[in-house]
Specification:
It is a single chain. The longest helix is centred in the N-terminal third of the chain and has 21 residues. The relative contact order is 0.18. Helices cover about 30% and strands about 20% of the residues. It starts with a helix and ends in a 5-residue tail after the last strand. The strands form three sheets. A six-stranded mixed sheet has the order 1-5-4-9-10-11, with no helix packed on it. It has a domain of about 190 residues: Aromatic compound dioxygenase (Protocatechuate 3,4-Dioxygenase, subunit A, Sandwich), CATH 2.60.130. It is built from eight helices and 14 strands. It has about 280 residues and is of the alpha/beta class. Bound molecules: 3-methylcatechol (MBD) and fe (iii) ion. 3-methylcatechol (MBD) binds next to helix 5.
């Protein structure tokens, strides 16, 4: 495999895997017919207005139809929706939250990662061990700052080449994924690798959509996390890195100033940083 291939994860492989994982979840929502009608009518009206305002032509309409077909056939709906739409849904959720800021989940979460103790290293290959290591410590608390015994931190991220395990065939099943259980005071210290900026696949319809408008396909380097505990609202979030490329132009519009880490290099040659999570109480 060439270096170029590693720099450009293929759309079809990761898209199909993400679509299959999502379909297995068999999702549902408790939405009344009246609410469905209200949302659907407003969504269609907004689209009609765009068509009229921009004098969209028949050739353009047919290209849109073909592109929508391509997104489905390429398995890219999870990718496209999570990059361009999910941040607005997260903004709605954030209105009712006081604790640690959340942000989008993205298409590559997998439940049931191996459980790890409060001080742990994520599963990684020898080649990952050659990367700069990141030691990430802190405490999970309630909104009053009281530590939570046995809180759960699910952590997942891409490797240095931009691949997520289970969405690329060459990686071990749980590479750079883990479920860390905090100690009696809610503390943890997780060692992983310092992630690199992430390029979403450009060889499929989502990439075509971005390049057709001279956009870029990059996300800043990030860690994904879901932090949860009994009696608390879980928070789905991401952490970024001070000074990192693409922080101000994330293609997925998912950065927040509160979510930027500033690690410092230690005498051990590893980067070190602390970040604490405060969880809202569970809703009614
Ligand atoms: C990612 O890694 C990601 O975090 C998002 C939101 C979309 C595509 C790939
Ligand atoms: Fe990601």
């Amino acid at each position: 495999m060439t270096a170029t291939e590693f720099n450009s994860p293929s759309a079809v492989g990761s898209g199909t895997a993400a679509t299959d994982k999502f379909k297995n979840e068999r999702v549902s929502a408790d939405t009344s017919p009246e609410r469905v009608a209200a949302i659907a009518n407003d969504a269609l009206s907004a689209l009609h207005k765009v068509i009229l305002d921009h004098n969209v032509t028949y050739p353009e309409y047919r290209v849109l139809k073909q592109w929508l077909i391509d997104v489905g056939e390429g398995g890219e709906w999870p990718l496209f929706l999570d990059v361009f739409i999910e941040h607005a849904v997260e903004e709605v959720l954030a209105r009712s939250r006081k604790g640690t800021k959340g942000t989008i989940e993205g298409p590559y979460y997998v439940a049931n990662a191996p459980e790890l103790p409060s001080v742990a290293t994520l599963p990684m290959r020898d080649v990952d061990r050659e990367q700069t290591q990141l030691v990430f410590g802190g405490q999970v608390t309630d909104l009053d700052g009281k530590g939570i015994d046995g809180a759960i931190i699910e952590l997942w991220h891409a490797d240095a080449d931009g691949y997520y395990s289970q969405f690329a065939d060459h990686l071990p099943e749980w590479n750079l994924r883990g479920k860390i259980i905090t100690d009696s005071e809610g503390r943890y210290e997780i060692t992983t690798i310092q992630p690199a900026p992430y390029q979403i696949p450009t060889d499929g319809p989502t990439g075509q959509f971005i390049l057709a408008q001279n956009g870029h396909p990059w996300r800043p380097a990030h860690l994904h996390l879901i932090v949860s505990a009994p009696g608390k609202e879980s928070v789905t979030t991401q952490l970024y890195f001070e000074g990192g490329e693409w922080l101000d132009s994330d293609v997925a519009s998912a950065t927040k100033p509160e979510l930027i880490l500033s690690p410092t290099p230690g005498d051990d040659g590893k980067n070190h940083v602390d970040y604490n999570f405060a969880l809202d109480p569970a809703g009614e």
